[in-house]
Amino acid sequence: MIPDKKLIEQRFAKAAATYEEQAGIQNQVADRLLQMLERELGQPPRTVLEVGCCTGLLTAKLVAAYPRMERFTVTDLSPSFQPYIEEKTRCLRGSASFLGGDIEQLELEGSYDLIISSSTFHWIHDLPRLFAKLRSLLTPEGVLAFSIYGAENLKEIRQITGVGLPYQSFSAIRACTGEHFAVCAAEQCSESLWFPTPLAVLQHLRQTGVNALGSKAWTRKELRLFIQEYEQLFSAPEGVQLTYHPMFFIARPRP
Q1: Contact 94, 106 (CB under 8 A)
Q2: How buried is 76 (Cβ within 10 angstroms: 0-12 exposed, 13-18 middle, 19+ buried)?
Q3: Segments forming the whole domain that contains residue 104
Q4: Do residues 109 and 135 lie in contact, with contact meaning Cβ atoms separated by under 8 Å?
Q5: What is the pLDDT of residues 73-120, one digit of tens each?
Q6: How far apart are CA 194 and CA 198, in angstroms?
Q7: Whole-angstrom Cα distance, residue 69 to residue 2?
Q8: Residue 36 belongs to what H/E stretch?
């Protein structure tokens, strides 16, 4: 399924008020990405581009980690996140700017020491083309750091409904990255969340904007069948399971 970016924008904007409370996995993923980045960076970056900020969960962490940034450009598909970013970059000593729009279409100027994105690139239509674009925006000694979700992500939802993103394997993303960058570090893991009921799973997905694929409302019968099948297939003493499959990459531009 090719993501409908208009629907993605609407769903994430609608989930803004609840996103950070519910985005426990996304928060952990951002922390791990920054830990990997710290091991690779020689000097703190002076210029940074963040792709896909949402409410600024990673943005705030970057401001705390690199308060002396001279130029910080933050982008998101939804312009509605601008007030969140302005608040979270208020204490930055350098300049901060927000750009709303599709990163695949946005015209960006200048160069960056660090381009970073967490939990966003799986929504991109043409990842190889985007990587070529980002390569052109990096300084020669710059770093690309990103997390993306892999083939096992939300597998429970996909198995029952048949709806899901065309998540790629770890090796496929590594090979795609390697066309324009030298991969310095790459990791993957599987994380399970447990919920009391399948309805709680659906609520979690709505409150994080992750249900940005289907626009069709379910009938009562469809919802009942979903609940029954989810309980049959994915129940355990802890509750019902939902799987996340984050993958992490740190890379430098090829000469």
Answers
A1: no
A2: buried
A3: 5-153+165-192+243-253
A4: no
A5: 999 999 999 999 999 999 998 999 999 999 999 999 899 999 999 999
A6: 10
A7: 36
A8: helix 24-40
Length of the chain: 255
* 36 domain-assigned: yes
Is residue 154 within 8 A of residue 244, CB to CB? The reply is yes
Residue 192 backbone phi and psi in degrees, to 5? -110, 130
CATH of the domain at 128: 3.40.50.150
Q: Is 33 part of any domain?
A: yes
Count of the separate structural domains present in the chain: 1
Residue located via tokens 């969340």: 193
Residue 230, in any domain of the structure: no
Residue 48 sits at the vertex; the CA angle it makes with 175 and 144, to the nearest 5 degrees, is 10
The tokens for 188 are 């993957």
Per-residue pLDDT of 46-75, as tens digits, reads 999 999 999 999 999 999 999 999 999 999
163 three-state secondary structure: coil
Residue 42 lies in a domain: yes
CA nearest to 14, candidates 53, 52, 51, 54: 54
